[in-house]
């Protein structure tokens, strides 16, 4: 029977607990020292092999499977390793203590990757996977021209992906392809757009233009149609392959000078081929108009057409071809048909909506007392966005800049009226002159008839 007298005293309980805790700490310290000593004396690969052999002898079959993704797999770079490294940048959590940061001179952002030994836990369709960066150093021996042997340390990197072995098929068939696709998307977003001039194959410059669709003074409806068309084209790779068409799209930008044709080219952040001022670049004018001789041009029309939709059109994916011209009517009809220039975009003169975009970009204004007058004047005169932008840049004070624009538009309107008046005067003068010529001709005709009549009577 339990009695209070048989209970141990508080002092003995505390003494026993202290002894147990001290023993546990001693064992832990000894094990840590042994582990550190083992790590120093035995290479990691050898330790892993020994542990694997011991596990097999003891019948301790692990349920975990590990995929090893080497950085170099007999090729310059293992695509799966690069994709995994890019993908893991988006999965870095506060629990990761060591990161590697780098940046190339032309990169837009920092490149952040996990350091060796760090682990990242990811979840995909209720499957938990563990990523770990592994780095090992090996001795590489090389010989120079004199036959002397040189030894250097080489770091070999790999990424290990661990998961329950029952999910092997799902990881290989679904998860890893998903990692590849996501890494491609991230690379596209970080890609630096380069300007490559014709004929200079080894020279290029970064094209970091500040213009975007948001800052483009363009008709909102037309702008939305263009953006929707571009988005639809980029997403339809499988569709083009299914219907048997080359994955390309042609755009013709036409309009008067100063209507932001060049700025529109800067807003498409993809790999594009640009042929500017096609009516002037080569002899691509209308063959039906006469005077057309392809021998006079180094770049022939047939060569260009073959590149756009001939056999060469199948030798590339996601090809966007942009043509610009100020005179659409001068182009050969063979260039204008769908399949070559699929979408014709008219960059017209400045509109009231385009003016509001320019006012917001240059002056930071969305409304002003002069807006109504300016919008009315813009509908009455032909003024390009470039002309409006130039007037808005003449003063840092919004009111002064807008008054200057009003004055400029009134001047354009006066010039337009005077030009029309002068034109009407010239037309009236030409009509009067032609009327006088007609009267003079009729008078001469009557005189001639009278002389003929008199001659006829005199002969009788």
UniProtKB/TrEMBL annotation:
Residues 416-460 are annotated as: Disordered. Residues 446-460 have a biased composition (Basic residues). Residues 416-445 have a biased composition (Basic and acidic residues). InterPro entries: AAA_N_dom, At3g28540-like_C, ATPase_AAA_core, ATPase_AAA_CS, Mitochondrial_chaperone_BCS1, P-loop_NTPase. Residues 350-419 form the AAA+ ATPase At3g28540-like C-terminal domain. GO terms for molecular function: ATP binding; ATP hydrolysis activity. Keywords: ATP-binding, Hydrolase, Magnesium, Nucleotide-binding. Residues 266-348 form the ATPase AAA-type core domain. Its cofactor is Mg(2+). Residues 42-135 form the AAA-type ATPase N-terminal domain. It holds the Pfam family AAA_lid_At3g28540. PANTHER family: BCS1 AAA-TYPE ATPASE (PTHR23070). Belongs to the AAA ATPase family. This is AAA-ATPase. It comes from Rhododendron griersonianum.
């Amino acid at each position: 029977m339990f009695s209070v007298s048989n209970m141990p005293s508080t002092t003995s309980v505390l003494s026993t607990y202290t002894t147990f805790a001290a023993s546990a700490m001693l064992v832990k310290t000894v094990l840590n020292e042994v582990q550190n000593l083992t790590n120093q004396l035995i290479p990691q690969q050898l330790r892993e092999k020994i542990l694997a052999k011991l596990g097999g002898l003891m019948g301790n079959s692990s349920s975990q499977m590990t995929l090893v993704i080497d950085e170099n797999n007999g090729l310059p770079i293992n695509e799966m390793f690069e994709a995994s490294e890019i993908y893991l940048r988006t999965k870095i959590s506060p629990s990761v203590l060591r990161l590697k940061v780098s940046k190339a001179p032309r990169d837009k952002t920092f490149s952040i990757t996990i350091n060796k030994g760090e682990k990242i836990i990811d979840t995909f369709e209720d499957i938990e996977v563990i990523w770990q960066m592994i780095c090992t150093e090996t001795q590489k021996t090389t010989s120079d021209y004199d036959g002397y042997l040189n030894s250097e340390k080489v770091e070999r990197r790999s990424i290990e992906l661990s998961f329950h072995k029952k999910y092997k098929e799902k990881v290989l068939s679904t998860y890893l392809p998903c990692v590849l696709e996501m890494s491609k998307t991230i690379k596209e977003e970080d890609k630096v757009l380069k300007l490559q001039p014709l004929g200079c194959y080894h020279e290029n410059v970064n094209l970091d233009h500040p213009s975007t669709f948001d800052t483009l003074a363009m008709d909102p409806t037309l702008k939305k149609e263009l953006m929707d068309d571009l988005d639809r084209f980029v997403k339809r790779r499988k569709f083009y392959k299914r219907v048997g068409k080359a994955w390309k799209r042609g755009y013709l930008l036409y309009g008067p000078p100063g209507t932001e044709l060049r700025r529109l080219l800067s807003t498409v952040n993809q790999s594009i081929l640009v042929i500017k001022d096609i009516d002037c670049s080569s002899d691509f004018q209308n063959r039906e108009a006469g005077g057309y001789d392809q021998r006079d041009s180094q770049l022939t029309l047939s060569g260009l057409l073959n590149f756009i939709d001939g056999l060469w059109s199948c030798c590339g994916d996601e090809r966007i071809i942009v043509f610009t011209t100020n005179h659409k009517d001068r182009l050969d009809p063979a260039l204008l048909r769908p399949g070559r220039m699929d979408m014709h975009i008219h960059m017209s003169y400045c509109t009231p909506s385009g003016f509001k975009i320019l006012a917001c970009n240059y002056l930071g204004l969305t409304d002003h007392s002069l807006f109504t007058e300016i919008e009315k004047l813009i509908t009455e005169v032909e003024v390009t966005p470039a002309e409006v932008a130039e007037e808005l840049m003449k003063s840092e004070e919004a009111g002064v800049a807008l008054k200057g624009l009003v004055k400029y538009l009134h001047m354009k309107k006066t010039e337009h009226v005077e030009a029309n008046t002068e034109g009407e005067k010239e037309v009236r003068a030409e009509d009067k002159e032609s009327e006088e010529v007609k009267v003079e001709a009729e008078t001469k005709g009557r005189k001639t008839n009278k002389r003929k009549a008199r001659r006829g009577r005199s002969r009788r």
